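Retro notes
What went well: the complex prediction finally ran end to end.
Inputs used:
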Amino acid sequence: MATREIAAHEAHAHGAPQGFIRKWVFSLDHKVIGLQYYFLALTAVFVGMFLSLLMRIHLIWPNVPLPLLGEIKPETYLSLLTMHGTIMVFFVLTTAPQGGFGNYFLPIQIGAADMAFPVLNMLSFWITFIGYIVMLAAFFVVGGAPLHGWTGYPPLSALRSAGPGEGAGADLWVISIALFCVGALMSALNFITTTLDMRVKGMSMMRMPLTCWAWFITAILGLLAFGVLFSAGILLLLDRNAGTSFFVPLVVVNGQVAAHKGGSPLLWQHLFWFFGHPEVYIAILPAMGLCSQLVSVFSRKPIFGYKAMVYAMLSIGLLGFMVWGHHMFMSGMSPYTAFAFSVMTMAIGVPSAIKTFNWLGTLWGGRIRFYSPMLFAIGFVSLFVSGGISGPFLAQPVLDIPLHDTYFVTGHFHLIMGVASIFGIFAATYYWFPKMFGRMMNEGMARWHFWFTFIGTYAIFMPMHYLGMAGATRRYSQFTELAYLRDLMPLQKFITYAAIVTIAGQFIFLFNLFWSMKYGKKASDNPWEATTLEWTTATPPPHDNFGGHTPTVYNGPYEYSVPGAPRDYVMQNDPATVAAH
Amino acid sequence: MGLVLLVVIWLITFISSYFFIAKTWWLPTGASSAAAGIDHHFNTTYILMGIVFVAAQVILGLFAWKYRERKSSRQATYSHGNNTLEIVWTVLTLILFVGLNLMSRDIWASERFAPAKPEALQVEVTGMQFAWYFRYAGADGKFGATKPELIDPSAGGESAIGLDTTDAASKDDVVSGTMYAPVNREVEVILRAQDVIHSFFVPSMRFKQDAVPGLAIHMHFTPITTGDYEIACAELCGLGHYKMHGMLKVVSQAEFDKWLAAREAEK
């Protein structure tokens, strides 16, 4: 036993690599891998955003040719939509919060020198990277990128004859997602093992920062969900290329009887959403953990209800696997099951509400410092509420009848899982940038970025709820054919204008990011006066994170404004324990 | 900064709420027997959720301003939470959410659990890239056979759904590109899809249901107001998804009979 532990310890204590390739490209250091994930997501988010800009422009000026693309055809619009959704969900919302910040800060926050399996960690990144390249390649093959939406419902996604983009483009799309699943599974194993086995002395589970809890629960969800999506992807690939009929019954496309028989399109939906709904929480949980952290740090107050927050995240994770059918109320699934899925979905609103109450409870009686990470954390809470309250509409099958597959849904999920998670990423960037790069980001630019993004987000996505109530269907490349959709064009125009302004505002962030790396004010080791372990080490942290010594933890993660303490915060590794004051 | 946050969050909240309350954009006027119940429950949910929305945002803005750090402000309250409060708000949200759900259960059950009445008018709805076709059984009350190999979308009408004209039951079948239905009589739709998934969406009828290849999905609704109602496709079905639409004409029983007879005569 003892020898095994020593061997395990030595395996982690790999020396700092010297060459460029081993240090920055095929690195085993979780910090470098975290940055690699982060920059992958950064390129992906700008690609995804650019695609959405093209979509919005096409919706209101359908005949205007666009740079690079020329005239947009209906199928081009659907390709943009598919790639926007897929890139954003997988390569941004799943990649940056977990692969990026989780990789960088989980080991440091629990006092470890690295992740449990550094080689596996490197492999997860590079597989994800290959998946990303394969995804982008779909734009450049004959027929272009697929048009079946990010949910890829067969038979549309299974038949080459179903439309342009359903040839090589769709194959690449499936392969890319399968690769992503493999990377995500490896990463999930690594996160779980690291959290369970690598905590330093004194870092009990209930002393972990809520960020670590969030990454841990997210990893468990990933482990259970990505395996299912991987299998579904392989089956779809077989249907497309090997003549199987898992998802395709007897169909006639364009007068031609396809060579399939007996498959079930609903089977794909069940498999996809068994992954797809937990995926929503994979995207949002890290942001929840982070915002809990930030609300506490910048209110100078312990988090309100630490245990309640942990239990809420655990129940969200658990219930998250029992609600997938709410995506399928109109699918032809039995109406009786709809009722069961509906009850579970309404129930998952409860832990979400608890979290909101606790964030407000943390602000209450605090002494709030409005630095940019806190602005984005408050913005996150606001968006989470706004996106959350439309949930109970869609969770009830009766109300889903008018609202399903309308812009109401688009508005709902963009607010709560899209932009709220992105706010988490922004907040994390502003918060941890000093630790990662040794300099502060420019606060003035950060504030402008916040106001642009916060107001812009509401201007874009709130009107989508109005559109949806009026019956505006999603995924229409134009609104010219139905009279009631033509009447809604003024609102569509407003959304596009808002999107153009908001997207322009994102370049403030991009500029600030790179400008501050070089010209930002030098950061101290603990610029925010926070308590968790990453702020006890050097900036940026040395290769082994703590410079040869192992920290010991004496306190919980949110000891702010402890009565009698010399400062208004007590570090986690401060031996003068909170109880002594 | 706290004050700016308060102003911006409150403004966003009040402007958003104004358009919800003014109903500037709203559900289209309902024209089916289900609409009243669905709309009523929509309103209930919307009022309750609206209160939650406004309350949470107002408090968020208020706290941001009230508890901002000032030179004069005292040290933050040292509190790790309050179990009684946690229990209170957990139970309250549980009652709210599950209660809402139970309230809507009966409407869903009446729409989707019970089959159509025997006297309902049967209409077979077929979705294909990118059109809807509607078939009526005719005097014999029976739908004739269709065959996949007979399907010819370019020919339209009966050929588009592959009607087997050699089948005796198909002699009096009527296939139309426009849906006709008599007012105040239940319509049983039998939803089919030929190629990919489509979704039959009639906003004014508060009706939506996917049409799935390989399945024949039976659903029903009862139009209660005469008029023309647009039909949309709500499930992404390919490049022509945006133009896959149709029209439902709700007319008196007499007009409906006349229309059907005329179509029979054309055959």
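What we learned: Residues 33 and 202 of chain B are 13 Å apart (CA to CA).
What to try next: split runs per interface for comparison.
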